[in-house]
Amino acid sequence: MSRVVVEADGGSRGNPGPAGYGAVVFGSDHRTVLAERNASIGRATNNVAEYRGLIAGLTAAAELGADDVEVRMDSKLVVEQMSGRWKVKHPDMIPLVAQAREWASKFSRVNYTWVPRAENGYADRLANEAMDAAENPAAAAETPKAPGWTGATGTPTRILLLRHGQTPLSVERRYSGRGNPELTELGRGQAAAAAQMVAGRGGIAAVVSSPLGRARDTAAAAADALNLPVVVHDGLIETDFGGWEGLTFAEAAERDVDLHRRWLGDTSVRPPGGESFDDVRMRIAGVRDDLTTDYPGATVLVVSHVTPIKTLLQFALDSGPSLLYRLHLDLASLSIAEFYPDGGSSVRLVNDTSYL
Hints:
By secondary structure, this protein is an alpha/beta fold. The protein has 13 helices and 11 strands.
C-alpha cells in the first residue's frame, strides 16, 4: 500500500472535560475506508484530544503499510505545529507532539492540510461517539462499538504474526519443520530489524514464540527491545514434514511422486511419518483460543513459522484451505490478525517487510 488519507478529530465537552478522539484512514481514492479508530480518554482538553486523534490515525496508517500520508484535520493548531510553522509552547503538549512526530517519521512523506469542520465529518462523528462514551462510560461498556463494517464487537486480541529470520535451510529452499537450524548472519540482522520495528510500535503486552530455536532467537531480539520475557507455546511449532525434512521440493517430489502430488492438493495428506495441514489446523485452533483467553483485548507478538502463521490468518479470514498454498510469507515478515470476543475476526496486514 502506498498513499492513504487520514482524517482525525478530537474534542472535549468543557475543555477540559469528557474527551475523545476519532480517526479514519481512506484509500488513495478518498472514498474507501481502510480503518477506523476512536476512544474516550477521560477528562482532557480539546488540544490533547486532537493530538490523540492524529496519533491514532498515523498508527492505523502505519499498520496498513502506508508510505505516503495526507493528513486532513480541522485543528489549525495541530496542522501548523506538525508542519513546523508554529512552536509548541504548552509543556503538557510536548510529549504528545513528540509521539505524533515519531509516528510521522515512519512514512516517506506526510502532508498536513487544514480543512473546515464540515469537511471532517467522518472523524468528527467518531470523536463525538467517543465523547458520548466518556460522559456515560457504563452505557458504552454495555454497547461496545463495532470497528467499521465488519460487525465484530468488543476489544479484540491483536496478534502480530512475525515469521522467524533466515536459516541455512531457507537459503537452499529446503523443507524445514521440526529440525532446528540456527539463524544465519542475515537472519540475525532480520531479527534485529524486526525488533526495532516492534519496539517502535509499542503497546505490546507479551511475546509468544514457537519452541524451535530459529523462532526463539527471533523472538528474543524483540523481547529484549520491548523489555519483556519470551513465553514459549509448543503449539506454535512448525509442521512436521517427517521424511521430507531437509529435502528440496524437487527431491521430495522425486522420492514420493504420488504422495507428494496428493499432499500439494489435499490438506488431510501427511508426509511420510509427518503431520498433515489438517493436523496443524487443529493444533493452531488451540493456540488461537489460548491467546485470546490469556491476552483478552491486548496486543501480542507471536513469532512462529510459515504454516502456523498462515493458519492463524486463515482463521481470521474464515477462508478455505487454498490460502495455505497461495499465500506467500517472506522471512521475518509481519502480518496482523485480530480476534474479537464475540467470535468476529479481521486481518489488518499481511507479509510486511518494509522494515528490513
